[in-house]
Amino acid sequence: MSGLILTLNAGSSSVKFAAFAHEAAGLEALATGQIEGLGAKATFLARSVSGAKSEYAFDESGGRVDHRVAVGAILRWLGEARFDRDVVAVGHRIVHGGPDFAEPTRIDAALLARLRQFIPLAPLHQPHNLAGVEAALAAFPATPQVACFDTAFHRSHPFVEDTFGLPRSFYDEGVRRYGFHGLSYEFIARRLRAIAPTIAAGRVIVAHLGNGASMCAMRAGRSVASTMGFTPLDGLPMGTRCGELDPGVVIYLMAEKGMSADAISDLLYKESGLKGMSGLSHDMRVLEASDSPAARDAIAYFVARIRREIGTLASTLDGVDAIVFTAGIGENAWRVREAALTGLEWMGVRLDRETNRANAPAISAGDSPVRVFVVHTDEERMIAEHAAAVAGLPAHAASR
Fold first, then answer.
1. Residue 161 to residue 180: CA distance in whole angstroms
2. Does residue 338 contact residue 360 with C-beta atoms inside 8 Å?
3. Same domain flag for 133 and 254
4. Is residue 263 part of a domain?
5. For 10, how many CA atoms within 13 A lie in the half-sphere containing its CB?
6. 90 and 216: one domain?
7. In a domain, 160, yes or no
8. Is 150 a residue of the active site?
9. pTM (2 decimals)?
10. CATH (domain of 293)
11. Which of 149, 174, 205 is the last residue of a domain?
12. Residue 166 lies in a domain
């Protein structure tokens, strides 16, 4: 008999979810959705793969919506949509696994206690991830719950890609480069093995470009370097995050501007990146449609950083066989891809502008020594596959 695998991605003000049926033939996607505005004006949105849609605002007369209320709403909707199978596993996206966790792990009290110790390493993400876990444990106390870490895929990095130029004692305490978006990169590595196995066995640079943006160098499907570091702030500029920043800027903000740690955190995480540079929006679609010089400058800086990181990661790999674009911007913003790749003929990149503008799966020219792909990422399916495996319900290759 089939069962339901539920995936949860709990943030500070939202809970995203997906539901998969675990059938004899593999995992079958059923529905996705999210609750936004936790602690404020919460709204619910869900869609089934058949196209059925449910959307409403919560009645908060009895109190504000928290993670437990959100999980309860998800369960009610699944029942109303007749996805009423028994939940056989719940997979959770956990941003930070610290230096210890290199693979998905079943959640128990000891693991929760350990993950709480990583809250200082990801204060804007980890507490809310764990709040989602606690809500799911209350709803499914006897169901296997699995932590899937966004940092785990990068635990294969060599020391030189993990460390900072600080005294070694800081590294030993856990102040090191962790890398993030690992679930997305792991999914892309698996997809490449299916669609281009020879390429997957080689040197690949993956650009995960969304509201959060990073890049990863992979050799034979394993991460060897990432643009993100100790936190998800490092590397590329993002929707609202600054990306790479001279640490002297933080000292200046403290000493000369009198800014507190909380104020600096808000600036770097929430008011910078594309939003801060453009003064308009964090949304690439809005910026591309704007004739504002500041919007053009923000896009130009975003592209310039992608180009720089392609060169840096290629040097880490001693060359490159393929470049993959994924996530919202990477999969849909053909102008960004074109600007990032134009002029890289010196390293073997030859873009087919027509297929690129069509967002085709392969966008390099037929004679390009370096292949270029656009691949849809699916972190929820990656979490579901991990949850199934850890729960003893392996996700089959026939998953669809």
1. 14
2. no
3. no
4. yes
5. 26
6. no
7. no
8. yes
9. 0.92
10. 3.30.420.40
11. 149
12. no
- Alpha carbon distance 136, 151 (integer Å): 22
* Residue reference for tokens 């006897």: 142
Rg (CA), the chain: 21
Q: Are residues 201 and 118 in the same domain?
A: no
Q: Which of 66, 100, 150, 297 is catalytic?
A: 150
Q: Is 68 exposed, middle or buried (0-12, 13-18, 19+ CB in 10 A)?
A: middle
Which residue range(s) make up the domain with 42?
A: 3-149
* Locus of tokens 């920043």: 245
Q: What is the pLDDT along the chain (400 residues), one digit of tens a residue?
A: 478 899 998 887 788 999 998 877 778 899 999 998 887 788 999 998 888 888 888 887 777 888 888 888 888 888 888 776 788 999 999 999 998 899 999 999 999 999 999 888 888 789 889 988 998 898 889 999 999 999 999 999 999 999 999 999 999 999 999 999 999 999 999 999 999 999 999 999 999 999 999 999 999 999 999 999 999 999 999 999 999 999 999 999 999 999 999 999 999 999 999 999 999 999 999 999 999 999 999 999 999 999 999 999 999 999 999 999 999 999 999 999 999 999 999 999 999 999 999 999 999 999 999 999 999 999 999 999 999 999 988 655 434 4
Residue 268 lies in a domain: yes
**Where are the alpha helices (H) located in the chain, listed in sequence order?**
67-80, 109-116, 126-139, 159-162, 168-173, 182-195, 197-200, 247-255, 261-270, 273-278, 284-289, 293-317, 327-332, 334-341, 353-357, 379-390
Q: What are the residues whose beta carbons fall under 8 Å from the beta carbon of 64, sequence distance 6 or more?
A: 38, 39, 40, 42
Based on the fold, state whether residues 134 and 281 are members of the same structural domain. no
Residue type, 148: C
For 310: left if phi > 0, alpha if psi spans -120 to 50, otherwise beta; the answer is alpha
